[in-house]
DNA sequence: GCTCTATCACCAGACGGG
DNA sequence: CCCCGTCC
DNA sequence: ACATGGTGATAGAG
């Protein structure tokens, strides 16, 4: 889940920590990408007309493979060496979020059934997208494809975002590319947005540098994490959160000194903080570039 | 008229032929 | 360039 | 992912 308004907060308060970049400036660089996020997008959009998707002779969905292959080719042609990071089991704190998604999909399926029964094309289009779920099979299909074309695959022990931020911190990739601002909270030193956007969409690659953000906003990393948790979980704006952190230094001190804000019951901020500060990641993975399998 | 700003509908993969 | 059909 | 965020058209203010 994203942190609402973090981009704007950075634009306003750390403008020199972010810069527009050209795709060419990443020529030859290794860049980590969240695979599951990509697969989800492909399943939603690639070759879809109503409930119809791209399928093979056996009737199995191939939209994710189609999307993954061509996107990867684009990156490679731009001289970028992608490293795809796959999600492992989610942390407990995300369980309720996942339960929410599950029930949304269930509701989507019901509404889809109604739409199909009444032949409402518009509704079929709308609700079929809500039933999309990335399965283990989709993930395995894509891992196999990537390995066959010699693109490194990393299997995260838990959250992919955490893993690729760790890869970046360890210098094993130059940067991470995502649309989810959580990557910054996980401390990926260089974070790119809009890397995959086609040039036709006329949106430049945006590069964020953590050290500059911290310097310019006058925060340490722990405070930046607290800021993200405050403005993410908690219903206050980014600017207010920033002021509170500057004033009090940490969530604990804010809660001690301020009671005019409504605190959610059992707000698990310290668990959230732990997920960002000490996420479950693997360091043995060394994304090797394999030679393409000619078959 | 002109530029700057505010709103709002609209869109979300990639390719290639015509 | 855009438009639109195709990818499986 | 009925999310969110960026875009481009349009309208109003100075």
TrEMBL record:
Pfam families found in the cross-reference section: XPG_I (PF00867), XPG_N (PF00752)
Tagged with keyword Metal-binding: yes
GO biological process: DNA repair; DNA replication
Domain XPG-I: 147-219
Cofactor: Mg(2+)
GO molecular function: 5'-3' exonuclease activity; 5'-flap endonuclease activity; DNA binding; metal ion binding
Gene3D superfamilies assigned: 5' to 3' exonuclease, C-terminal subdomain, 5'-nuclease
InterPro entries recorded: 5-3_exonuclease_C_sf (IPR036279), Flap_endonuc (IPR023426), HhH2 (IPR008918), PIN-like_dom_sf (IPR029060), XPG-I_dom (IPR006086), XPG/Rad2 (IPR006084), XPG_CS (IPR019974), XPG_DNA_repair_N (IPR006085)
Family the entry assigns: Belongs to the XPG/RAD2 endonuclease family. FEN1 subfamily.
Name of this protein: Flap endonuclease 1
């Amino acid at each position: 889940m994203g942190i609402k308004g973090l981009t704007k907060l950075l634009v306003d308060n750390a403008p020199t920590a972010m810069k527009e970049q050209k795709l060419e400036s990443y020529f030859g660089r290794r860049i980590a990408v969240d695979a599951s996020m990509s697969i989800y997008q492909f399943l939603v959009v690639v070759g879809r007309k109503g409930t119809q998707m791209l399928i093979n002779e056996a009737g199995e969905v191939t939209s994710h493979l189609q999307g993954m292959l061509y996107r990867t080719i684009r990156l490679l042609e731009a001289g970028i060496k992608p490293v795809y990071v796959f999600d492992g089991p989610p942390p407990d704190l995300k369980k309720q979020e996942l339960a929410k998604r599950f029930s949304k999909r269930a509701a989507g399926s019901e509404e889809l059934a109604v739409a199909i029964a009444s032949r409402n094309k518009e509704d079929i289009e709308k609700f079929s997208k809500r039933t999309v779920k990335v399965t283990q099979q989709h993930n395995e299909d894509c891992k196999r494809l990537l390995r066959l074309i010699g693109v490194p695959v990393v299997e995260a022990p838990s959250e992919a975002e955490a893993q690729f931020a760790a890869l970046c911190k360890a210098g094993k990739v130059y940067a991470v590319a995502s649309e989810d601002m959580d990557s910054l909270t996980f401390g990926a030193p260089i974070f790119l947005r809009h890397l995959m956007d086609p040039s036709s969409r006329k949106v430049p690659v945006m590069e964020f540098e953590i050290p500059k953000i911290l310097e310019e906003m006058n925060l340490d990393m722990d405070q930046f994490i607290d800021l993200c948790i405050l403005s993410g979980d908690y219903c206050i704006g980014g600017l207010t959160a920033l002021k509170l952190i500057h004033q009090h230094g940490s969530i604990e001190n804010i809660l001690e000194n301020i009671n005019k804000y409504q605190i959610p019951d059992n707000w698990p901020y310290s668990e959230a903080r732990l997920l960002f500060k000490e996420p479950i990641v693997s360091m043995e993975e060394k994304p090797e570039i394999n030679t393409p399998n000619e078959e």
